[in-house]
Structures are given as C-alpha cells and as structure tokens.
Amino acid sequence: MGYKGAFVAPGGVLALGLVREIAPRGILAIACTKELLEGRQAVAMLGENPPVVVALALSRDGCVDTAVDLEQARKLLELGLESCTWPLKAQEPAQLES
C-alpha cells in the first residue's frame, strides 16, 4: 500500500506524542468516539500543515474488549493519500461502498 510505517498507541497522549515526533502526512485513527474527537482537535492545533486524519470509531466502545470493523479499516488504508488534494477542506465523513 506504500505506507512507510504503522504505530499502535494505547491512548491519546501517546498517539499525539508520536504524531509530533514522526510528523506523518496522514493518520488512520481507530479509537472510541471521545478519543477520536479529542485527537482530531489536538492534531489540528499542531501547526500550519497538520496531517490528514481519517477516523474510524470502534464498533464497541470502551477500553477493554473493544472491537473494530477490520474490513472498514482495510478500505480506509487502501484510500491512501493520493486521493487527497491540498489544501484540505473540512468535509463530512464519506461513506465507503461495501
């Protein structure tokens, strides 16, 4: 898929630290809705050209026994950054075809 790395961060503070350190062009964030909202706000405040954030909420909220739609995550990864145009404008989340 052309990605140069992947990181799993068990929490928003660690995730934001990784984003600051690595300065990625894009992020696929998978978390509970609360963490996704807080993470998007924090990333948006990082500077002039923050990374693109694609968010996928967990299927079952919580910190234990969570679940994610792996097929949806795979589809989001396949989108890649090639489909993005700069400068990015805020848009409503797109629905992926099943």
Mind sketching the topology for me?
Blueprint: H1 12-22, E1 26-31, H2 33-44, E2 52-57, H3 70-79
Parallel strand pairs: 1-2
Helix pairs in contact: 1-2
First and last CA, distance: 20 Å
What's the overall geometry? globular
Give the overall average pLDDT.
78
Return the string of H and E elements.
HEHEH
Strand content: 5-15%
Summed up, the helix count is: 3
The radius of gyration computed from the alpha-carbon positions, rounded to a whole number of angstroms, is 13 Å
Count of the separate structural domains: 1
Q: Main sheet: which strands, in order across?
A: 1-2
- Total number of β-strand segments? 2
Describe the structure.
- With 98 residues, this protein is α+β, with helices and mostly antiparallel strands.
- It has one domain (12-83).
- The chain is built from 3 helices and 2 strands.
- A two-stranded parallel ribbon has the order 1-2.
- α2 (33-44) links the parallel β1 (26-31) and β2 (52-57).
- α1 packs parallel to α2.
- The two termini are 20 Å apart.
- Mean pLDDT is 78; it is low at 85-98.
In short:
The chain is of the alpha+beta class and 98 residues long. It has helices at residues 12-22, 33-44, 70-79, and strands at 26-31, 52-57.
Distinctive features:
98 residues, globular, disordered C terminus
